[in-house]
Design brief:
The protein is α+β, with helices and mostly antiparallel strands. The protein has two domains: 61 residues, Dna Ligase, domain 1, CATH 3.30.1490; 32 residues. It has three helices and four strands; from the N terminus they run ββαββαα. It has a four-stranded antiparallel β-sheet with strand order 2-1-3-4. The longest helix is centred in the last third of the chain and has 25 residues. It is elongated, with a radius of gyration of 21 Å.
Amino acid sequence: MTRITTRYVVKNRAGEELVVPSLDDLHALYAHGFLADEDLVRQERSQAWVRAGDLPALHGVRELERDPRKVVSLVATVAVVVVLLVGLLRFLSR
């Protein structure tokens, strides 16, 4: 069985276009900052351009990178929960 992949066309502010071979590659380019939110993206067979920042498939990719405090908050919360669970297990094992 052959898997059909959709290629994407990206256009930057200067009007330069790049063909991206798959959604995974588009996702990686966006996640690593090679694509700006203002760059335009369309499926190869489509005529409709969409801002990369508005593309549903890329939504949330940069969320943690934009606000590192979220990562610190998440790690701190997990640490507190682990400490509480260890304390509860020690209390219950007495």
